[in-house]
User: What shape does this take?
Amino acid sequence: MPCVNVDMNAEDYVKRRREHFDSLRSWEPIMHIPRVEELFDVRDPLFPLCEFLYAKCRNLYQELPQRKNGHDTFLHPINVVLNLKKGGVTDIITLLCGLMHDYIEEQVDLFKIENKLNEDDVPSKHILDEHELKLVSAFEQELIGFFEREEDECNCVEQIIETLKLLTRLKRDYYYKSISYIFNCPDPVIRERAIQVKLADRIHNILSIECFDERGRLYQCFKNMFIINSSKQFLIDTYGENVFNWRYGEHAKSTERLFTRCCKATYEAYLMICKITSKTEIFQVKTVLQLAFKKYKLEHAGIWAVTDFEDDSHPMRLFQGVIRKWDARLHHEWDEWTRRVIDEKEFCKHFFSEYEFTDAQTQAIIDYKDAYAMKEVIAFLLYEHEYVLTSFLSRQLDKKGRLKVANGNS
Assistant: This one.
């Protein structure tokens, strides 16, 4: 018989237990397109705007190919809105920004395909960025025109446009730099709104990666880590560590709840990678890898900052430089990525030589140790209230928007 608090009756106990269960389980995405009145409150004075933007968004997404998992692309912005609502967000402007968060960027990508532009090419980047600015301006004029037709005055146009600017990545910007614009925005309302939308966005993205191979899943999870880490610092800076107490203010709770859910979804994705890679007959080395990580974490404080390779014969070495490896992948620095991948493979082949692992098994070992280590970092971000991964924050980037060089290593 479970021990029940004497001040809590049986009904309250069951309710509390249900709340705990609901807080731990995943937010499952929906697979059908709801009507606009199912997403937004028809009694809200801005509901006509909701209808207008819903129609515009749906029309655009009908031109786009299906998502990689075969689902209707319009399901993504729909699920972002629903994630915001599950997180306790009620602000209609934030919900609309969730609906439209990819609206400009999707049009830029269509333009890129139609004109056969390569975003890795500098001249093409400038063309795409100029086109993006034109799209933003045109969309702003549409919103202004909408309120003129409605004979209504509303100050929400600027709020929507400024939030969408933060959420839309210029092709010339590195990934980190585009995210840092959100966390360094001087307007506190727009900043937090954009953070909420970005977290809701990444929750759905990370729950939709079943079509990727292990490396593709690791890559998507890695993109989440930077956002989660910076969101953690934002919450501490803005609300203090009490923000992680459920009895804190409702407004803070929405952002904290989205942060928590993004952590749990990302942890779950990493755990799935560990499970998949374990099927490749590498059970002989899992204990070695796990203990090597514990040594790295506990004896060397390895998860408190971005580190790099050291000349060490211990398998702990495999956990040094993980973030910098995926950083190279994120920014298409293929030579650096390849150098680090080869280094890891060679180490594993020599260290575990007596097992005569195949190339596929060696790759599984590397994928397993990456997923295992990074899920532990996510757990620290989730439950160690003071913890953030230093050198991996939006405010600590170099002038180019990249991770800073550490200890003379790149």
About this structure: The chain has a mean pLDDT of 87. The radius of gyration is 23 Å.
